[in-house]
Structure formats: C-alpha cells, structure tokens
Amino acid sequence: MEKIQIYDTTLRDGAQAEGISFSTEDKLDIASKLDLFGIDYIEGGWPSSNPKDSSFFDSAKNSRFTHAKLTAFGSTRRVGLACSNDPSIKSIAESGVKCASIFGKSWDFHVTDALRISLDENLEIVADSISFLKNRGMEVLFCAEHFFDGYLHSPDYALSVLEAAESAGADWLILCDTNGGTLPSAVEDITAIVVEQFRTTVGIHAHNDADLAVANTLAAVSAGASMVQGTINGIGERCGNANLCSIIPNLELKMGLKTNIPDLSQLTAISKFVSETANMTVGRKLPYVGTSAFAHKGGIHVSAVLKDSRTYEHIDPSIVGNERRILISELSGNSSLKAKLGELGIDLDDEDGKRILQRIKDMESQGYQFEGAEASFELLIRRMKDGLRPPFRVEGFRIFVDVTEANVSSEASIKVFDVSGMMEHTAANGNGPVNALDRAVRKALERFYPNLKDVKLVDYKVRVIDGKEATGAKVRVLMRNTDGFDSWTTIGVSTNVIEASLSALLDSLEYKLLKSKEATAN
Amino acid sequence: MEKIQIYDTTLRDGAQAEGISFSTEDKLDIASKLDLFGIDYIEGGWPSSNPKDSSFFDSAKNSRFTHAKLTAFGSTRRVGLACSNDPSIKSIAESGVKCASIFGKSWDFHVTDALRISLDENLEIVADSISFLKNRGMEVLFCAEHFFDGYLHSPDYALSVLEAAESAGADWLILCDTNGGTLPSAVEDITAIVVEQFRTTVGIHAHNDADLAVANTLAAVSAGASMVQGTINGIGERCGNANLCSIIPNLELKMGLKTNIPDLSQLTAISKFVSETANMTVGRKLPYVGTSAFAHKGGIHVSAVLKDSRTYEHIDPSIVGNERRILISELSGNSSLKAKLGELGIDLDDEDGKRILQRIKDMESQGYQFEGAEASFELLIRRMKDGLRPPFRVEGFRIFVDVTEANVSSEASIKVFDVSGMMEHTAANGNGPVNALDRAVRKALERFYPNLKDVKLVDYKVRVIDGKEATGAKVRVLMRNTDGFDSWTTIGVSTNVIEASLSALLDSLEYKLLKSKEATAN
C-alpha cells in the first residue's frame, strides 16, 4: 500500500493566521521538529515576499533534514515577464531547496477578472513557470488555486489548467479549496474525476471556512488523492487550514492508511510545541491533541470511563501521546472526586469526600477553577485531608510604585516566617509591582530553602472573572513554574491582582517543597 | 420542502465543557435568545441531576417561548425500578415542559458490560421509559447512545433498540455518535439504512472527537435525517458537540435546505452572546461567526479581496451578520494599510503610509498587537497623520499597597493637566492597585470632561507577551469600554502591569472625547 504523503504549511499558510508571528529562529525550530516527527514536505515560506522568509531559507541551507523535503512557495510568473526576470520564480530557483510549490489560477473568473488576461495566456504562464523550475532540476508541485470553485463554474477550463501543468512536467497536481467553502461530496466527486483523467499524483489543500477542512481532506483521499496538505493545530488565515493533528490520526487509525510518521504518540507534543512557539493559547478542545480531548466532567461519563474507557473514548489517548483527565466541578459527584484523588494517590473515605467536595464548590463559587491548576488542587486536598501546613508564612507586604516622566520604580517589602519562627524581612525592586513582590518572596525564602533557586516561572496569566466589574472585579491568576524537570500550575483569586499573584506564587513554592520532601522520603 | 429541525443542547451538553459553568440566570438568558433566533428545540438540562438544572426548569415554567419547545433531558429508567419510582423519569414528567429527550443504550457491549443486564431487558427499559412519558402526553425523542459504534459492532441489535423505541411511540429516533469517532461515510450509510427501515423521523447528534462533527451532521442530513442536534460555538464535553453556528449556514447556504431560522444575520450575535455569557474567550477562527472568519492578512489576499470579495470569501459575511476585517501586520503592504485606513475614513498619501507602516512594525516588535485594539490604532494614526494631541496629560502617579493579616489597602495618587494647563492632583482607594489608579484618573478627568462619567469598563485582560520572562516580562493589557451605545478596545504594553493598564485607560478616555467631539461637529 502506498503511503499518504504529508505536506505541512504551518510556516507559510499558518503564519498568515491572525495573531501569529514567527521569528526566523521559531521557524527553524519548528521545521526541525516537523522533520523528526516524519513530515514528508515542509513548506518554509515564500522566499521573495518578506525579509523573514528570505532569512529562513538562507539559514535553512545549513540545516540537515533527516527525512523532510524543504519546499519554497511562490506564485506562477507575472504577466508579461519572463521567468528568468520574475522575482518570485527566481527567488525560488535560488532558494537552495530542491522542491517548489507554485500556485496558479484555475478558476476562469479569476483569470479574466482578477489577472485580466486571456484564458490561453494563463495556460502559458502555468506551463512556463513549471518548465523553468523543472529545467533547474526541482521537484515541482502545481497548486491549482480555487480548483473546486473553478471546476464547478467551468469544468473544462479548470481541467485544461491541470493539463498544462502536467504537460510542463509538474510532479504533483494539488487541488486547492482556497476559500474553504466546498462540501465534502463535491470534493470527493471532483477529485475522483481528476485522479481518473491524469497520470500525475494528486494532492488536496483545504481550508476550514465551512468547518469541513478535515472532512474534505479525507474525502479527497477516499477519491484517490495521495498527498494531504495542512498545518499543525489547523492554524492559518481566516478559519485556518486543514488540521494535520486531526488528519494524520484519522488516516492511520480510522481509515487504515499508512503515512511516514514513525511514532504517532509524538503528535500531542508536536501540537504543544507549535502552540508554545507561536505563543498561542493552546486549543483545549482540539481533537486528539487538546487537553480537553480526553477530559471527563459529567458524573455518568466519569464513572463509566473508569469501568471501561471504550465507553466514552473513541481511541486510547496514549496512541497520540495524550492522556485522560478527570475534571472536578459542580457537575462532579463523589465518584469523580475519588477518581481524581486516586490519580494523586490519595484514599478518601466518604465523610472526608463530602467535606472536600463542599469546600471545592464554595471556592469555585468565589472564582477558583481547579481544572487548570492541579498543584493548587493537590495542596488543598492535602491541607484538608492530611493537615498539611505550609513550611513558611507571609505576615504582610507593602508595594510602592512611583512613576514620573523621568523615572519608574517598583519596590516590594515582605515579612516571612519559617516553621521554627525565624523571620526574614526583606525587600526587592522589580520591573513592575508583581515582579518586585515575586523577587522579594524568593529572596526571603531561598535563605531557608536553597532548592527553591531552581524554580522558575514560565507562564503567568491574569483573567478578570466577572467582566462586568472590570478593574474592580475579582481576578484569577494562573502561574506555571518549572524546576527544569517538572512543571506545575497554581491559582490565586482576589480583587487585588497582587494578592492573587502572591497566593499563586506561594502555592507554587510550597508545592515544590512538598515534592522535594516526597522525593527525599522515597 | 420540509424544514430541517434545529435542536440546541448548549445548556446541557454544552455545560459539560471544561471551563463552562452557567448560572440559572445565564441559562434563562440563553434560552430566551435561542428562542428568538428561531431554534426549534432547546434542551434545558437534566432536571434531576443537580440543583442548578432543577431551578432552571422551575423558573422556565414562567417563561413564554415564541417558537421553541423547551426539552428536558434524562436517561431511560434504572434497572429494576418502575418508571413511576424512577427519580430521573419522574423529574422529567414533573418538569413542566412538553418535550422529553431520553437516552438509552444501543451498543450491545454497553448493555452487557456497563449496565450488566440482558439484551432483552434493555429493550424493555427503552420501551417502558418512552411509553411512560408518551402516556403523560409528552413529545418524546429517543436518543440512541453510541448508535454508530453499536451498529458497526452488532447491526441487528442496534436496529432492534430503535424498533423498541418506535413501537413504544417515540416521536424521533436520534442517532448519537457519542464518542465522536465515526467517519462521515459510515454515518451516511448507516443513517440511510435507518431512514429506509423506520417510519419515525430521524435526527443526528454528533461530537467532534475526530474533527468531523459538522461533516457527520451534514452526511446524516444527506441520508435523510431531518433533525440536527448541536450547540452554539460547538461547546461541549471533550472536543465539543457539532457546532450549530457552522451547520445552520451550511444547510441553508451550501445545501439549499430550509430551517425555521427567520434571519440568519443574527448568527454572529448569538455566537458572541453565548461566548460572553459563558465568559469564554471567543474562538476567533470559528467558521462563519469568528472575528477572523473574514479577516485578511496576506498582502495578495487583501488586494484581491478588495477588487472582488468572491476571490477569497466563500460567502458575503453580512449574510451571517459578520464583517470583513483587514489586518495590519508585518505581512501587510501599503495596500492593506490604505484599505484599513479607508475603513476609518482616512486618506493617506504614500509618504505618510511608509512612515506609519514603519511605526506600526516598530510597535509590534515591542509587543503591541493592533488587531484586537482598533481604538488605539485609530488614535495612533490620527496622532501621526493629523497631529492629534490628547486633551489631557498625566504627569506621574504613585501606587501604595499595604497588606497585613488584618487589613488590605490600595491607594493611587495622580497629577493630571488639561489643555489649558489646569492641574488636578487627586487620589483614590480601590480594591487593588489597578482599580485605585482607574478611579483616581476618572475622578481627576471627570472634573474637566463630565461626559466621561458615562464611560464604563466592561472587559480587562492581561497577557504576558513573552512567557519565558514570567513576572518580569512585558505584559499586554486590553481594555474594552462602553458609553452605553458603543464599545471600543484599547491596548497598553509595559513590563509594569499598572503602567500598561494606565496607557490603555488613557487611550480609552481620549477615544471617547474624540468621538464626542466628532459627533458634536457633525
């Protein structure tokens, strides 16, 4: 059986998403991960279009990929210009990569109304551009822009564009649903016609404007397409591109097809890596790879999934490197809480269970959300169940911020006691009040607990709980810390952002001390 | 042509999404909006399962819906219990609504391994539960849980469950892809078999675990299903339910089918209302209704879409109540910027264009993101182009926060000058430092500009720009203010959360004064 080729355009089409901006280093990092993951083609960008893409191709020349073919993207030559003088075609030929993706018009309305040239002239442009790059020894993918819309409008012309591309030596005919509005039935029927009529291999490039990009991609594969194009997490312009993190497991696990991905359990890690590199909020709901994809909240689902995971899970989450999570909320009964505590290795009799569940519900009604703050949750349980006490106590703090036209200063002072009653009264400056307080607390506590020096904040988020109250409302602070090995998230809630931050920070440090103590005891 | 019935389960399946928690008032508000929008069935919840759902049904008894049928959800009766003694069945019968959705097992493995009863006993349970509610005059939907998985495993048994439901008088047979893992081709084939074999009308309930919920829903409709179930924005457990905001326009605009929605242009407003009520971050990329759904960033797309919107838009955004947006970023050329400024009614010659574009790129590299802060963007342009100066100036401020075990206090003092050089030096307390500063600034400025009293903050968000620097990193503050008629968003960036907040606040107040002046001038 032939393997379906996977073509990633995260670095080009993905970079056109609202809010996404990759640096050259980001792009090199992502390309290297995609290569190791087993992606066949990595579209690096559009060499002539902006300095960032040009610098990426310059740097990528020195990168060695173990498997992937790095690909340069660009348009067919401009009207009235020879390929040898066309900046886009030239920059692809000179980009140092061996594979080119060239997009051209296949919808007659675009040729006559957007390009404003004759239909025949467009065929010449397509053929010229492909021949030029083929003559330089490159593998060439011809991307037929708006192919499905074009076919539905004028099937003969759309097919004649593919004929021109095939005659000029294109290695692939890529059918693009550029506007993302085509239905799967149409994609399947039209792809089948192309696969039937052409000897060149066919690929599919779908967008998600009608929420059908993954379905359209699978429909094209069913009809004989042997390359799928998309992006990690489905990032891309407007509603995004077809999501490779959904397509790859669907091909392998649902359709019984093969790809060159050696280890599908790296899928969740690749998704997270791209989200973090793009500094995006990770889509919790993302199929297969989202943190909610195998999270169970309703009481019935939780108790059933614990009996047999097939009851509410379509696949074993470990196959894609994800994991099951039991969520605690007002919809939870004691059985969910017991399961959650079981995950933490804590036994619980029914009386404790009721008391803890009530306390959680009370705190949630004050604005706490333990779903995203599992370290704070564990501390809460241990405090209530085992009488855990923090090994330090903050008696109070002061913040002073002074901003003039010439000067900005932020200072925090704090008093901290350790378990034996030893007091440390110290102060620190910072970039802002939260940073000053953070530095003061760490400065004080590191005297008592030197291993806290390894703890570094890696994420800090603030969200207003009730938007209607605006700056006077309660805020929820989430902090993620790491000690270089593990990372954990804590929560603080207050109307005062600084108090909420301190609360999350103290939980974080207490959690580290608890884990170090457990590690020493084992 | 028969109209496709739309069944919304936002208030029940949607409420099982991670991070979602609706109050009773939220649920009443959403139900009322869904009714006005033209939804046919609104599933309000599970009357017996938790106090919130019970209180919703109590309150909803007094609500009058113009079109929708409010529906109570629950399971078939428990094993060994008569319906008249079953808490779930009883609570549905007593909920005060005329329509019930009852779910039961149709996958033999669930019957034998989860329920641990005989296959025949399950058929009796299904028939009993439906008959009981039918005898009380209710319309009854039978939801066949895991129907597709069940059919693929044991087709005869899955169909026998539907036969039991039909014989007992069920008004609808709802085929559920409970685990969300079925492919559209299987959904289409199996639905066609059910539609062929049964005289009862058929509905589809799909989940998005394989990123195919919308496609599966459309596949079932193609095969003859006449009811679609889903949620607004696709919220729901794990990866979510089928998204009605995608399904409804696909049915109407792509498949040429009819629904009872009188005005599709309310779709975007319904999506936003549910997101805001749920206090969720609105999915920018959501098909049809997302803020990015018709946003254009790449230079070629922008210039083409301005020539003819069909080039890169699959539908006219106004049909679903959305709008086109031109995004400004490093990928933009002068043509995008001109188009954006055209939206603001500003002309721009090329020299100004280059200067402004350079300034925007510089600010973006410092962490500004104007995509979400259009009021700050307009002020920036007017300052650079028209020499706009703010009608007030803040010379400096001080913040003092004092937290002890007994007491928390936050105070801000500030000096503000108006255009004539008049100075106001004032101070205020607040719940936290940002709130104190906010109140001090407003107190000072309202003396000069009384119409600022109408301005209220409605949203305040803080995000760390570079997570690697944690509390020492730059933060981006976004504020949304309203004067009761319009609302607008501004941005501030600084390493100091208080300075960033002040910057966004001052932009917001300046923007209000600018708009009031323009309104007076016209």
TrEMBL record, chains A, B:
Query: What name does the UniProt record give this protein?
Result: Citramalate synthase
Identify the domain of life: Archaea
Protein family per UniProt: Belongs to the alpha-IPM synthase/homocitrate synthase family.
- Molecular functions (GO terms): (R)-citramalate synthase activity; 2-isopropylmalate synthase activity
What are the record keywords, sorted?
Amino-acid biosynthesis, Branched-chain amino acid biosynthesis, Isoleucine biosynthesis, Transferase
User: Looking at its record, which EC class is this enzyme?
Assistant: transferase
Respond yes or no to whether keyword Amino-acid biosynthesis is given for this record.
Answer: yes
The residue ranges of the Pyruvate carboxyltransferase domain are 4-268
Signal sequence residues: none
* Annotated metabolic or biological route of this protein: Amino-acid biosynthesis; L-isoleucine biosynthesis; 2-oxobutanoate from pyruvate: step 1/3
Source organism: Methanomassiliicoccus intestinalis (strain Issoire-Mx1)
List GO BP terms, alphabetically: isoleucine biosynthetic process; L-leucine biosynthetic process
The yes or no answer to whether the keyword Oxidoreductase is present is no
Q: What is its EC number?
A: 2.3.3.21
Quote the Gene3D superfamilies the UniProt record gives.
1.10.238.260, 3.30.160.270, Aldolase class I
